[in-house]
Description:
The complex is a heterodimer. By secondary structure, chain A is mostly helical. Chain A is built from 14 helices and no strands.
Amino acid sequence: xxxxxxxxxxxxxxxxxxxxxxxxxxxxxxxxxxxxxxxxxxxxxxxxxxxxxxxxxxxxxxxxxxxxxxxxxxxxxxxxxxxxxxxxxxxxxxxxxxxxxxxxxxxxxxxxxxxxxxxxxxxxxxxxxxxxxxxxxxxxxxxxxxxxxxxxxxxxxxxxxxxxxxxxxxxxxxxxxxxxxxxxxxxxxxxxxxxxxxxxxxxxxxxxxxxxxxxxxxxxxxxxxxxxxxxxxxxxxxxxxxxxxxxxxxxxxxxxxxxxxxxxxxxxxxxxxxxxxxxxxxxxxxxxxxxxxxxxxxxxxxxxxxxxxxxxxxxxxxxxxxxxxxxxxxxxxxxxxxxx
Amino acid sequence: xxxxxxxxxxxxxxxxxxxxxxxxxxxxxxxxxxxxxxxxxxxxxxxxxxxxxxxxxxxxxxxxxxxxxxxxxxxxxxxxxxxxxxxxxxxxxxxxxxxxxxxxxxxxxxxxxxxxxxxxxxxxxxxxxxxxxxxxxxxxxxxxxxxxxxxxxxxxxxxxxxxxxxxxxxxxxxxxxxxxxxxxxxxxxxxxxxxxxxxxxxxxxxxxxxxxxxxxxxxxxxxxxxxxxxxxxxxxxxxxxxxxxxxxxxxxxxxxxxxxxxxxxxxxxx
Lengths: 340, 270
């Protein structure tokens, strides 16, 4: 009983930290940058803007915080939370530590969509729309291929690999034919992931769908638990495995496609963060989903801060997440934390 | 609850049928053991009953309704299935796994309530493994894990529990304890349909027994009527002696005369 009480205390403490930490990181990231503004200024500007008053700071400071940094920091938070939650769900449903939000080919599909839009000079909104559309098309094709054969998760992963490979080749084809001075760098830059061009308009376009997907994943948390036991066990417990798996994977893929459309392809976040979260609170999705949201936000905020402050020019996000992610994952393996 | 398997045929590919024209009926709550040698389709039969494999001919009905016509959720309220081996995935706590048995009893988007968790605790206590509830179920022994899976099945409140070779991975002692457990389930009016490699278990339970051979049920009845020297010899292809020892009936494989010594030389060192 005493032990249970102590465990409960640690759980509550962890919970409080997981709520406060992202808020602190958020404010810190807003204050950080070549143009100096203290955390107090940041809080004041946000407060005044939200309550409709005019902030006492000079117009330039307000502009930098509100128009430049805020959309970018919000985007980082949305992307971090989205990729982490989707990754946690994919690892659970596929029972595979290396499953990521990109397992079913979303990223390659979205990459192709974005590249196509760039080649066709469709502008920012066009790139975003094409990325979402082709990301979802890739997942739909994956499901279509898998449904023709015996319906287990292994087939689904294999089908995802195939579709991913197909779209990856198509991206190469586009790169090969793209104008090397103007279009090619744009495509390459998009594929490495960046938040530098984030705007409120771009965020507003995905936000409603994002909220719906997040809510759906959260509402399905118990069902996701049962799915993660394996097909046979889940069926015995009364799940319509095929339908429920499609719903859970579908919403997570949608979530992934949405965030990829504003950030480009950012690897490893969806693999590393769920592992960290599982180390902290265990595999139960009732706790794992909120924890992944919290850690995901913090992680991507830190990475994006590094990207924009480490050197004079921007470093692509995907580069930093890869450089941090791989050693972190190796650490998990050696510490036997990647085990189930 | 009534389970009727009527003249079913199933094969993994069209050239060879594992099960052919197989029929039997089962009424819960009773215990039915299915005996059969390796590769005779015992597990396959169970998979057909729970609707995992599509049969090519015949019908399987539960209370008059085809097993494939049930919604997964309604089926889970009638039948719990426990596979031969369960590979644990994540380090869920034992109580979480057992509570998952409640899934068919709660709303689609609902989480289990405190009552559901309490009910799961009760089932663990009933099976004498309440002390495991907070442990990760990846860290417990195979025997304990099986009890946990049975507790999950009880939490489901089914009318019939289908177990695929439940003693296959248990040691000598746990296998015997399992027989007691089935006895306990019977007292609780839980129907049990299980496959087993050990005729002794059917004899100990004094249960109904069906012998599966060549893709069909070749004998059906009470264990002591069905399990005889001849039927076992035919089934397993070795000499078998069914003997009364004290109040028990036991099944001894191999010859009983001095030829047996050849297989187990008592003076191998001389």
